[in-house]
Amino acid sequence: MQIARCSYIVTYLFLLIAASFALPNVQYFSVDSAHERGSTLSKRDNSLDEPVEVTVNLQQSLSTISDHFIGVTIDMAMVKNNWETLDFNSGKVQNMARALTPTFFRLGGGAADAVTYVLDDHYYQLDAPPPPSSLDFNMTAVQWEAVNEFARTVGWDFIMDLNALKRNADGSWNPDNARQLLQFSADRNYTIAGFEMGNEYGHFEKKFNKTLTAAQLAKDVVALQKLLAEFPSYYSSFIIGPETENSTEEYFQGFLAAGGYKSVRAASFHHYYFGSLAGRLSNFTQIKVLNSLALHIDDVMRQARSVDPQLPLWMSETSSASKGGVRGVSDRFVAGFLWLDKLGLCASKGIQTVLRQDFYGASYPLVDSDLNPTPDFWLTVLYKRIVRGAVFNATGRHDVRVYAACANTDSFNAGSLVIYTLNPNSHAVTFDLPQFQRQPRLLYSLTAGDSDGLLSKFTSLNGVKLELVNDELPDLKPESAPPGVVTVAPYSFTFLVFPAARVSICLH
């Protein structure tokens, strides 16, 4: 019996090895020399043994990162599910939320179009009438109060996605239900920084068996402007749109060209690298996947600039994979490669604001269903604390990513520079920084937090696992690094701050 079993195992291994030679793109799973999981094996390029020479053009900036560059979302589907396990009154949740402040917070998504705001005369109706169909649902006063009080408590700037499917007989938007919501909110002194009109109109026909033209949407946004003007609390609130799911000209450029650009503070679009069912672990570290975002942004930019060269652009809903993310992957350490690279690319290309889907919910949250921080939470907090101001062009090498910007003056002296890198490879990479060869630097090195490697639920900062301590965030302190070249670990993110750089653009 033992001989037969050994023979079977040998045969199986032989077939597996043979298949790997026949299919050179087969993905293997192992990270770190000992136990990581998720690396893609490939022929080693001899050039990878050489240091990556990084140069930064400090004479001019590409764009500017504001304190609201990164925002967050909660999907309206969470309202339909009565917030699931999210506890707005939890001190732990509030502490994590405050760590992201200042920030824009969007309550929206596909379910936003199917909701009816049910607010009785006393503002405390718990049991709303049944909705007319399985897609439709009601938001009660209690639910609306909960999210507004939370945003107020943690200092988030609220953006509300209104229900665009409320229509008159002639096809125009019916603002009656939205007016009830605004009246309720004004009576409670709720601050709402901005509004959207609906979500991803290209999906309306498939999802709701309804169609909405870009020209009609542009008219509806004008109607929303008139509605906001009725309320002193909201007449100065901004509008963003058209909230398209991709860069198709039918809705994005069509909305702007139909006059929509005159009514919005920014042209807004959504982005996901791939669908949840198509997502594989290897997608999260492949350079060609990372490169696809630049093409998408360039296309959106082209369409917007053809209508208004000065119109700001927002990526108002984004994560790794659409339709909730890839379960067991989009909330793990490996997701940070797509997230940090997206932040770097958006900053370099002048995207004004990036709203992360989701703060809580689905398979790509910053806070998981047990109300614990995911790896992308720590990455987001560090980015907000470290990076702010002018963005510079940085050159590196095709197999790694390198970005540069002013360091956040809330954390560092004016004139400080930060260079942040992604190493999506299974080997260490050395960076040579000739412009800053003799300068002291502060190092933030992020690696997987335990033996699960790329699929870890945890992150380590300079070798120390990051966890909340008594529901409070720990100190996120850097290490002092000696001058000279910098070697970064396999599958890691690194922020290098040069506090003595005295970059002239960063001094102002």
Overview of the structural elements:
The protein is α/β, with parallel strands linked by helices and 508 residues long. It has two domains: 48-61 and 393-507, Golgi alpha-mannosidase II (Immunoglobulin-like), CATH 2.60.40; 64-388, Alpha-Beta Barrel (TIM Barrel), CATH 3.20.20. It has helices at residues 2-22, 77-80, 91-98, 141-154, 176-187, 204-208, 214-229, 252-257, 287-307, 335-349, 375-386; strands spanning 52-53, 55-57, 63-65, 70-75, 104-108, 115-118, 137-140, 157-162, 194-197, 238-244, 266-271, 274-275, 313-318, 321-322, 353-356, 387-395, 401-407, 417-423, 429-432, 441-448, 459-461, 464-465, 479-481, 486-488, 492-498. The strands form five sheets. Strands 2, 3, 16, 17, 18, 20, 21, 22, 23 and 25 form a ten-stranded antiparallel beta sheet that branches. It has an eight-stranded parallel barrel with strand order 4-5-8-9-10-11-13-15. A three-stranded mixed beta sheet has the order 1-19-24, with no helix packed on it. The termini are far apart.
